[in-house]
UniProtKB/TrEMBL annotation:
NDH-1 shuttles electrons from NADH, via FMN and iron-sulfur (Fe-S) centers, to quinones in the respiratory chain. Couples the redox reaction to proton translocation (for every two electrons transferred, four hydrogen ions are translocated across the cytoplasmic membrane), and thus conserves the redox energy in a proton gradient. Binds 1 [2Fe-2S] cluster per subunit. Its EC number is 7.1.1.-. It comes from Methyloceanibacter caenitepidi. InterPro entries: 2Fe-2S_ferredoxin-like_sf, 2Fe-2S_ferredoxin-type, Mopterin_OxRdtase, Mopterin_OxRdtase_4Fe-4S_dom, NADH_UbQ_OxRdtase_75kDa_su_CS, NADH_UbQ_OxRdtase_ferredoxin, NADH_UbQ_OxRdtase_Gsu, NADH_UbQ_OxRdtase_Gsu_4Fe4S-bd. Keywords: 2Fe-2S, 4Fe-4S, Iron, Iron-sulfur, Metal-binding, NAD, Oxidoreductase, Quinone, Translocase, Ubiquinone. Residues 86-125 form the 4Fe-4S His(Cys)3-ligated-type domain. This is NADH-quinone oxidoreductase. Its cofactor is [2Fe-2S] cluster; [4Fe-4S] cluster.
Amino acid sequence: MPKLIIDGIEHDVPDGITLIQACGLVGVEIPRFCFHERLSIAGNCRMCLVEVVGMPKPVASCAMSVNDLRPGRDGTPPTINTKSEVTRRAQEGTMEFLLVNHPLDCPICDQGGECDLQDQAMAYGFDEGRFKDNKRAVDDKYLGPLIKTSMTRCIHCTRCVRFMTEVAGVPELGLIGRGEDAEITTYLEHGLHSNLSANVVDLCPVGALTSKPYAFQARPWELTKTPSIDVMDAVGSSIRVDSRGKEVLRILPRINDAVNEEWISDKARHVWDGLRTQRLDRPYLRKDGKLAPCTWDEAFAAIADRIKSSSGARFGAVAGNLAAAEEMFALKTLADQIGSPNIDCRQAGAKFNPALGRATYLFNTTIEGIEDADAILLVGCDPRVEAPVLNARIRKRWKQLEGKLPVGLIGTDVDLTYPYQRLGAGPDTLMDIADGKHEFAQVLKDAEKPMVILGEAAFARPDGYEILAMGAKIVTESGAIAEGWNGFNVLHTAAARVAGLDLGFVPGDKGLGTAGIIAAAGKGDLDVLYLLGADEIDMSALGNTFVIYQGSHGDKGAHRADVILPGAAYTEKEGTYANTEGRVQMTARAIFPPGDAREDWTILKALSTALGKPLPFETLQELRSKMYAAAPQLAQLDVLEKADSGPIVKFASHSAKPNSEPFGLSMEDYYLSNPIARASAIMASLSAMRADAEKATGTDG
């Protein structure tokens, strides 16, 4: 390990890191604007200049490797002075130049209070500028409905350009011109088409790029900041919910290297306006064909009358994509007490069976483990849409291997932001690989750590069980299950799915699944259907069944319901979720539910009392205690225990005979995939922009 003397103290630092990183490791902070740990080195801003003894002038510490430093003439390790007069003058001079053209917008700038330039100007700037010339002006750019631009403030650090090119994989931003004519632009004026584009707002160290929906909403010191997790997909990204009073005003990412690094999708970040519109804030009861407000007691009485006049076999329950584990456990317990085996959390119709073992429905490689993979087979999935942050991790691995990561896709031809080989459209190609008849089978066998990723378009279909079995066979035959490595991966799209499977929220003995429940309702064989936030099923096929809808938004399920029970959104309750890799995390309450809405488990507890079948818990702690007893893995918060791979090997022996129908896409519209997103005006504008782009280019996504 190289030795450095930093501010008079000798340190050992790792090989290959930059000088700015070495200083950070030993607790010495060096100012920077263009440098970012997850982006390539640009060396634009020169704010990180430090004195290296023996060099004729200060060096840019972000671009200088510790291995390139030479020892002193007397053999002493390289000496770096970060607090010397030379360093101080260099940094103050750089700051003065950066502020030459920067407008004095702090009182009206949305970045005020959390601006790197503002903070560093206080530490390294002068109290008065010496330049008297007019400041230059730059036209603002249109970057879509998410990003507000004030390009006169731009200091050309190019963080946004590097993020869009390297991480998002959509090189739509660039720097044109030279000298005073230099500016960041989209070349052709249009909105950014990446699902990760709004991360450039966090990266911008000045106020050039700010959040358009959040503009002039609040100052950072007015907000209550609540750590939580995202439920817009099954990745479980770490987020921070910023609220004021009764409203959520913005959502920002939190650093979590194991899951989302420090990025979140545009939907996760900007769905917050959907939390305040089309909300269910009181119970409703259908009278004379119309829904009318009622009291909780009236709603419970109407439900009790229907359930008591029926039998358990004629009761069904479906859990939606955003349901937390607590309410699913409460509903499952209630269904057991009613005597109904007709429950299902697999709203899309997947064929997972928890009895086969947890490894058969998890992303076993883990999200962080993608960075070890050396061959990837994607089956019926579009990770760029279904899990944008996870797709960025695959692209990161592709870049690490300098474009030599073999990626094969079976399914619809899509843009994944990295090169791949489209192997085929459906199960026939998958079967050829499983039988070793396809050339990509050899690619997987030759790889040390191959991965197979099965998407919802593959497993949520009538022959989904067979598709999963073939995926298990490929993994087994290619040697993707070995010591410390399990290459069988299921990419879920619903935040609630894994916890529901862990709890066994699937049909009991002779019970009906989602498709069976819908069919029974249409034929009149089901008297009561309980929808726990389930909006993605065919409501027109439910016939005359008495429908109870419990959820937070007036979406498809609420329109069909005979009784509506208003619940809480994910920012309004403490809920347990397990992401696609099985990592158990919890949301935190940032605000309270509106009006008479309640936390979901309390609704089910009150309903059970009205039915004369009270659930065996009174508090959230008691509920969780019983839930952990039923599903111990849900008690392991943020601890990722590898599931036993034995069931996958056993699963691979299943004789699979799928049909030949090609794999489609699991999402019709990424931006409108759940009730909260469909209530969001921001998501609607993004959906419209995407539709216009497809129309202009003649593509279909």
